[in-house]
Amino acid sequence: MRIVFLLCMAISCAKSQQLFERYTVEQGLSQNLVLCMAEDQYGFLWFGTKDGLNRFDGYTFNTYRSNLNDQFSLSSNYITTLLIDHRGNLWIGTAGGGLNKFNEETGTFNSWRHRDHDSGTLPSDYIADIVCTGNGNLLVATQGGGIASFDTAQQSFRPLFSELSAHAQNELKAPQCMYLENDSILWIGTRDAGLWRYDMHRGTIEQYSARMGVHGPSNNRIKNIYKDRRGVFWICTENGIEEFDPKTTTFSLHRFSDGEGNPQPGISISELPDGNYFVNVWTDQGIYDPQRRRFRSMKFGVINHTFRDRSGMLWLSESGRGVLKYNPILERFHRRSGAFAFELFKDDFEAAAKHLPFHPSPETIDLTTVAQESDGTLWFFKKGYGYYRYNRRTDMLNFFPAGDSVRGIRFQFLPRTFIDRDNTVWITESTILARYNARSQTFTYFSLPSYTKYPELLRNKTEYPPITTLFKDSLGFLWLGTSGMGLVRFNPDAKAITIYQRNENTPITLTNNFILTIHPDPSDPSILWLGTDGGGLNRFDTKTETVTHYFTTTEGLPNNVIYGILSDKHGRLWMSSNAGLFVFDPVTMKVLNHYDVNDGLQSNEFNRYQFWKDETGKLYFGGINGWNSFYPEDIEPRTYQPPIVLTDLRIFNVSIVYPRIAPPLTTSLAKTDRIVLQPNQNMITIEFASLDYAAPKKIRYKYFLEGFDDHWIDANPFPGESFATKNPKDPIRTATYTNLDPGEYIFHVKGTNSDGMWNDSERTLTIIVLPPFWKTTWFRVVSLVAVFLLVGGVVRAIEMRKIKERTRRLEQETAVERERLRISKDMHDDIGSRLTQIELLSTLTRRNMKDAKKVEKSLEEISAAADDIVTSFDEIVWAVNPRYDTVADVMDYLSQYVSSYLGRTGIESHVSLSTPPSTEYVSAETRHNIFMVLKESLNNIVKYASATEVWVQFLGFENQLTMTVQDNGVGFDMNVEKKFSEGLTNMRKRMEDVGGTCVVESTPGRGTTVTAVVPLRNSKNHPNG
């Protein structure tokens, strides 16, 4: 309520004091006609306009609009009313789009529209007002459809007055506003049917209309309903504002008229702490005393809606001109326009005017010469005339010529007037210093040393630099600040001076020779605080005559130009500068607070010589746009702690919050405490805001990412201590991180309020960065297993190779041994039998030595046996000789054997060869066995087949050797004949021993065919290769 009261005090001079900050489309508002406002559970402000819904965080407007191609957007851009229900849901009433609900989890909207012939839907799409009942359901007032109760759980509507008469239902078709009292009595203001009272528990209704006299409103068009602390209702109607007492059911009209006497419709009303009311009518606003019926107009414009947020700001929507924010804090620094000194003592000048030969004004009086004694006597100078001394209490005016004509002293240019601690008046100009004697009303003049004595101190070698400030200490010394000469100590009695200047070779001297102000330390008068023009603040010890400390922007000052210094009752120093006002603690030697134009100052830039403290402790500081006055105790920092919220989250500078929630977010950012980022989402920007709307530009932020940063980071870093930012631009309120390693981090952010007080709480967000698959645990486990398997596989391969090599060697050794056994067997069986035969024939020959024919026959048989032995040896040697292991060699040998063997028998032979690549070979065992099969086949043909022709074919193909022996002999029955069974079995056995096959086919009268197939091997696997 106090805010509204201050508002009324401020509106009358709003244009001059700029106590209002306006937000329009230029600042991001979607449209300048704001019809409704609300503040959600997080502290965001919502503004409904005729062209969209806006969410505001103090810096940025996020606008939501209808999109015909998106069923989850607003159903209409024309927003008529907003409601935050008990659960924090935002409900939006529209004109023509029905009812909407904002889903903060997804950033989308649900809408409910009217459907013809469906009583369970909204009765009309034009929403006038919404209220929430205790059970969370809604009462929705519609234009043309009356009021419907909306069950938020079942999402169904039902007419509220279905049990009433048809007349009552018809009268309630156009409700304008509602007020729910104690969750049971619903007050309804209609467009043309007056005020209604509906008992929701009993189902009864009462009407108050204009035809009821004092028991009804004077006009049936109800615009607003307000209930004050006394339980009295104030009803805004077309005729004004009606005071309604529900106990007596009487109405009393309070009229408000425009300049032509026409009644002004009431828009809204708010009760003030003193019992008065802030009234908003169609074209006027102001303070209204209902008892005396007095209205103090503060005409500002057409205000559609007023709203107060939790930070204490009052928002007013001005018709077609956006929304205005009134900050009552700005009233702390009372701002006035006009020339500083003249406005301060305007009453004195006006009172003295009748005694003066000129009219006093800022143009006729040199305002740098104005000073006031402790009793209120005013001094001022008029160029060309002289000095005037005026006491308004006694109405006495004294005039003093501009100098001493006898001594040739004359003030011509820019004299300065000072009042010292003993209330002594001093006037200075150039090298002249004049002291006023109140008793004799005369001046004593002092001439400062000439430039011939101190030539290095002169600015132009013709005059002393002007004296800018003067302070008298307890010893009677005058301390003079100059515009270029440094600090001067003057002893009036001894007429001696001491000069203190900057010396770049030592740190205990002044930082700048241009002294603008001198102020004693409140607790130690021997310490002087010097404000300089560009050198910051100097702490000068008059005892040691040194500068013990100095402070510039590097040490934390907002600015290095200090125009004026005034102390308050707490011993703090208030300083004016080119960056506003700041408060300095001379004990801790730290800046406590900093105030700028956003706090209500006339400007960030102040002026020299324009500072003053009156007898009540009130401080005055003048600047380029007027001046400010205040009591320091009224400028205590606000303790309001605004909520700190996250307002946006961007991945690679693309928002995943607005206009719609997007992965990796799964709900609204306000409800999100944990987010999981994919490995490729390695650039994240977090935006935050402290929702104090008083002066968002002065809010400061600091943050750190736990697991990455090792300390808090100031989002708006500048040298010095922590006080509100001196930059009027929006503060930096984002933190960007790139290339975060996989892992878990916690983002922390804190903010201040607009007065620079840090919030006790902070907002955190856990950020989990997933590793790429090659850095995951499962991948490492799989990789480790794969390495083990690979190493194991390699080791196994090596071992298997060794085993194979050993096996091959063993097989070779076995094959050699087997070949030895075979050769031994063949030699034993074949050659041995032949030798035995030779031995027997030799014995018979010896017995028959006398019979020559028998001897000759035995010798012939012995010779044939010997030939067989030689042939057998040749065959054995051929089989084991590696020179004949290729298929071509084998085929050549076998074909020659066929021709030779059959040639002796007279049987005609036909041999065909098909030679494979030379890389294939035939092992010794295979050569021997296939030869034996061939030999056995030919032997059987010669003995039993009675054949005249034999066809033999050798085919090398697909790593195998095929031998086919076919005759045209008598053949035999495979199922009956037994005489060949042993030989055939031996042939099959020989082929199977070398991995081959042997097939015999024969038909009586049609010959016999023997087919032998053996596998071949590549030369790289040759045992000798």
Key terms for this structure?
Immunoglobulin-like, 37% strand, 1025 residues, alpha+beta, disordered N terminus, Heat Shock Protein 90, single chain, five-stranded mixed beta sheet, 70 strands, 10 helices
Can you describe this structure?
The chain has 1025 residues and is α+β, with helices and mostly antiparallel strands. Among the domains are: 644-771, Immunoglobulin-like (Sandwich), CATH 2.60.40.10; 776-880; 884-1025, Histidine kinase-like ATPase, C-terminal domain (Heat Shock Protein 90). 18% of the residues lie in helices and 37% in strands. Helix 6 (777-847) runs antiparallel to helix 7, helix 7 (852-880) packs antiparallel against helix 9 (924-945) and helix 8 packs parallel to helix 9. The longest helix is centred in the C-terminal third of the chain and has 71 residues, at 777-847. Residues 1-17, 454-464 and 719-727 have low confidence and may be disordered.
